Amino acid sequence: MSDRLGLGTLGRIPEASRPRITPGDAGAGIVHLGLGAFFRAHQAVYTEDAMAAGGGDWGIVGVGPRSAKVIDDLRAQDGLYSVTTLAAEGRSTRVIGAIAGLRHAAADPAAVVALLADPAIKIVTLTVTEKAYRLDPATGRLLLDDDLRGDLETDRDPRTVPGLLIRGLAARRRADGGPIALVSCDNLPSNGHRLRGLVDYLATATGHSDWVAGNVTFPGTMVDRIVPASTAETLAVAAGELGVRDEAAVHGEPYMQWVIEDDFPAGRPAWEQAGAVLAGDPRPWELLKLRTLNGVHSAIAYLGAVAGRETIYSALEIPGLVTAMRRFIAEDIAPSFDPPPGITVVEYGDQVLHRFANPAIGHRTVQVAMDGSQKLPQRLLHAILDRRRAGGIPRWGALAVAAWMRYVRGTTDDGRPLPLDDPLADRIRQRLATAAPTPAGTVDALLGLDTVFAPELAGDETVRQLLVDWLTELDKHGVEATLAGVR
Ligand code: CS2
């Protein structure tokens, strides 16, 4: 099939799959940083539905911070791409027409800075992954490395996301561009507060703090939809459904949720008409989602990958794993925080396990396993710490962390290599290389990663012993035999 999705071929695709707005009709009102699959299957869909229901100039200018591939693919398709929803009982595909423009930050940062200064732009949303915030995961403090320092102290082109934001805000101030909301849609706890802290720091360092305080808001959000990385099969399915090729196709589960703090000084799309929840304080939702969904996801990913399972779905078939995760949710996660009113963590957790068990979603364990050093604190370690402060013994949380420790050693139980895709990969490897070749040696070496394990946790003898015990089990018997013993 050679014809490609685009404005010229839109009339040929099945009517039910066409965009719910007329592409190009709405002016641009949002800049989005990070054009990964998650954004394309989540915020862009909500925004298109909000425009279809409530109108407004909320077209999205998509900015790719690094990779040019997705920009090129989307440009070749006039910004159009499809989302296939994968349900156990069947699938459906729709084309999204909400992208009103595209920029490549690495190639043309000045264009992005100009965009952020444009008064028509009223909202900036971000999905740039945990590591782009340059915050120390253990303490939440800013990591001022050479790239970021250069963004602040010189006038060369900005190289980091925070650098791009602060240059853009400074230009907006000069251009009198008016107030704007910066919205983190990454899986970080208190993501709005964190982004505010980061931008405040940069604004103070560059003399813009008063303007930022008076003109910029940082609504917090909880975002949720399982969106595995696209594969050749994703593209083949999209082409089959549409009758034209779509090189930017994405796919995801049927479930989606977006809880947004309603703090937009220059207006916003009618996201509530698209099913989003506009809330006062989204933090209880963030804790619920990070600790329950993402914490359990990571636990399954590490255990499953070490057991040699390709996907989350196939990992769930390991006897004892679901029981262990249910106990993890009930005994360690649920008592660690207060959920939003009307929500029971155990019921939410059951729903999450049901979503993970969707056979149509081929979410790879190694994809969820990546960037563990950035994910562990908010997903697993904060709950463990809260349980310890309350005098609890977080046995199952420790199993999840021990599985990460086993995973980063780099082989499955039957000796096949596992990738270590993590910004701290070198430090992790160095520490393991000089550690004593015993479970305790591994545990002590990794607990010494101070940007992952806060001192209170690293110095907790009970936690250390739990980790050594689990890692001893995992080393001696492997994941499957360890889990088979779980009742
Ligand atoms: C996953 C998440 O890759 C991962 O680390 O845990 O991306 C997860 O699928 C989403 O947060 C679900 O909303």
From TrEMBL:
PROSITE patterns: MANNITOL_DHGENASE. Residues 29-272 form the Mannitol dehydrogenase N-terminal domain. Its EC number is 1.1.1.17. The keyword Cell membrane does not apply. Residues 283-466 form the Mannitol dehydrogenase C-terminal domain. SUPFAM superfamilies: 6-phosphogluconate dehydrogenase C-terminal domain-like, NAD(P)-binding Rossmann-fold domains. The keyword NAD applies. Pfam families: Mannitol_dh (PF01232), Mannitol_dh_C (PF08125). InterPro entries: 6-PGluconate_DH-like_C_sf, 6PGD_dom2, Mannitol_DH, Mannitol_DH/Oxidoreductase, Mannitol_DH_C, Mannitol_DH_CS, Mannitol_DH_N, NAD(P)-bd_dom_sf. Transmembrane segments: none annotated. Keywords: NAD, Oxidoreductase. It catalyses: D-mannitol 1-phosphate + NAD(+) = beta-D-fructose 6-phosphate + NADH + H(+). It comes from the Bacteria. Belongs to the mannitol dehydrogenase family. This is Mannitol-1-phosphate 5-dehydrogenase. The lineage of its organism: Bacteria, Bacillati, Actinomycetota, Actinomycetes, Micromonosporales.
